[in-house]
């Protein structure tokens, strides 16, 4: 059995270290991908735990809410990786609502916990989050803005689940060698 207090502590520590490096602002979106089966030491989708889902989601909400950062919780492939968000967030970002409700083995314990904790939870199909936390290799990269940047923290696992942390940055389209006139072989003389 996994120690829920330890899971909460690992979640808080990993999230705190990610936030220190990601430089998110109020109004940004943070995505959580979560396999409670993996946290328990099982295989993704085969040993879900609502208690673990509640512990992790509540820990993240309690950290993000005072900062004004919005949480989106990604579901599993059985609901096409739809995301639970607050209805107000969907309206603010022009996200289209889809019709599906999570179950313990379709959407998962993390989504159920989000439905329990959000004021007006709805599901959306796609999102472009500013950063995220993937607990149990749930593949959140498609939901994080391009360009995704891996973030290293001291927390490599939560429970038994491997963790991945992502932030994002704007695309680099220039730099020290960038040119703003056509001269592909750098043949122009400066002077």
TrEMBL record:
<dbReference type="Pfam" id="PF04260">
    <property type="entry name" value="DUF436"/>
</dbReference>
<protein>
    <recommendedName>
        <fullName>UPF0340 protein QUW44_04445</fullName>
    </recommendedName>
</protein>
<comment type="similarity">
    <text>Belongs to the UPF0340 family.</text>
</comment>
<dbReference type="InterPro" id="IPR006340">
    <property type="entry name" value="DUF436"/>
</dbReference>
<dbReference type="InterPro" id="IPR028345">
    <property type="entry name" value="Antibiotic_NAT-like"/>
</dbReference>
